Predict the 3D structure of the following.
Amino acid sequence: MSASLDGKPRNGRLESFTYDDGIVKLFVIATLIWGVVALFLGVTIAFQMADWHVNLGLPWTTFGRLRPLHTNAAIFAFCGNAIFAGIYYSHQRLLKARLFSDTLSKIHFWGWQLIIVSAALTLPFGITTGKEYAELEWPIDIAITLIWVVFAVNFFGTIIRRRERHIYVAIWFYIATILTVAVLHIVNSLEIPVTLTKSYSLYAGVQDALVQWWYGHNAVAFFLTTPFLGLMYYFVPKAANRPVYSYRLSIIHFWSLVFIYIWAGPHHLLYTTLPEWAQTLGMVFSVMLWMPSWGGMINGLMTLRGVWDKVRTEPSLRFMAAALTFYGMSTFEGPLLSIKSVNAIAHFTDWIPGHVHSGTIGWNYMLIAGILFFLVPKLWNTELYSKKLAHQQFWFVTIGLVLYIISMWVAGITQSMMWRAMDDAGNLIYPNFVETVIKITPMYWIRAIGGTLVLTSFIMMMYNFWKTIKNGKKEAPVVYEAYALDSSSIEHDASAHRKLEGWPMIFSVLSLIAILVGSAIEIIPSLMADKYVVKIDAIKPYTALELYGRDVYIKEGCYLCHSQTVRPMAHEAVRYGKVSNAAEFVYDHPFQWGSKRTGPDLARVGGKYPNMWHYKHFFDPREVTAGSLMPQYRWLFDSKIDYKTLPKKLEVMRKLGVPYSQEEIDNSVADARAQAKMIAEDLAQSGVPMKIAEMDVVALIAYIQRIGVDYGSIPEEE
Amino acid sequence: MKQEVLKHFDVPWLPLTALVLFVVCFAAYTYWTYRKANRPHFESVSRIPLEDPSIKTNDLQGKIS
């Protein structure tokens, strides 16, 4: 009855064991709950873009505060819990062993939920680092690290205790995920605390941008791609009840993904100091690396080939097939967007969120749904409540997503074309930014409707599972038996790679080395970037009040709608002013370049308008710019500046290398008050009461009026 | 802007090392994967997800580990 894989009889010790499915159930339930929360937040901010009233005028419900909550909830809460559910289910079965420790599993589960709850209790209140997808403040960052270690111990402990010598490819993807996410999270989260709820990034300006870009890019690869590919390689064969189409292709797929890591960085240096032959070779390999992604998609779809008739009837297979198709689409669109000329058009526009959602909804949501339709009936020992409802759900999410993607293509390309349109005399055809916003508002409505369909589809799935679970039958856990690993299961004549797979620890070390070498090669230029920035004396640190105002800017999430960098393009220089220079940002901990221009770039906004303009604009943007969709910031008019934090803030900045003198630190409060008074006096001329000098809005105005001024005032060389 | 700064990055051996490393590794894993001798092994490993261990009991009488 027991034979090893190659059919030889086995004579080791037979052991009994059970699987821990309780923990899988918990993660499944958490996935469903956080999934609906994440989607609800997404729909909310989508409507805020279509109609500013939806910001509700409350600090914790405005776009800038809810957007980070949406992204964090979608990535770390929804996808995170789904990953853990899928990994814990498949890991045990692929290794024929119960999870290493029930206690660690529980700590992992409750710890992760606690992290999510603390995100929900901080982000809406403006407690944020201001770095996209890494907004959580330092105490939560530490908690994430600890829980991740718990997960890793539990995961690798299970490998040690396994009863299956060979490590199936899915587990390789899991290993790469665990190791890489740890490296990414730690390197990008290096920051110095000011208070319990505030810290400044260790890096500044260009360097911070490079580290953040490295993190963001790879977080997509190693949180939203590799774990899901691992899950795909387990659940698609399982649901189709046939082995993966090509196991070899999956190995190539794996290693190529790990090596994209090494390659993606230097790839950006292609046009610079490298000799011609290396550039060409590099290009060829970039293309070769892109193919494995499609190899992965083909591998998945070909696995389904034999059960194509069931794809129409079985919800799990149907969602998986759709997920793979969207995976193929977004891995095609991604490299397309990285082509310089395409990027010049798409960057900062709605095309990017469109692309992101074809990945997160098309690939992640669809695959999660596919996995859940397979898992839930199995875990609760029953049949799915309604296949019909599942198919209706499928159409809701598909149509919703298509509306989302198409509306964002149209919005992005339309707006980009309007931004760059110039007449023969070199004047902008649409000099007024808000014109380009009003033009695409209908697309924002379509996107919001598409999002609502996606949210509805998810609620349908929750209802379907709720009914399914209520029907569940409680049964005593199944006890399995399998042989322990001992010398009888070792293949002495195996080839090197087979042994490699049989030695998961060595394999992990090798992939760790690959990942670390890759990270190093990619991150070294970034970490050295500050050396290549030619310092400009005219660029001075912010005053105490401006620094405080900058923190208000970060707190309100202004960077989610505004960029702060003028690209070297004729139309940008005409619209915004002098092209940005790396030296401008050397004191910016963290950088605030932004990634989306829902509003205009602010890199040259200092001095553009009088203080009173900003005063009115923050109170009600529509008072000065008809048709604006920017939220109101009325609470800034009666929340007081917390002057006493200033010395500490300057002190931390000095530690980070910003040249504040001791005198400036000691006098920071008095200096800030004096500057606030000056602005208030200016506003008072238009009838504003002097007590405004105490309020946050004045600090924000001080900061806005300073942005880009130092560099902008240097006369342009001919 | 990132590109502008990286333009000044004058350590050509670094990307070159990455390139060589990558080419060598790519060749190595492709060779391993497509070696004829490894084929039967891959076929058997690809069946792991479909093989469930034998069921001993459906209750908790057995010894659990």
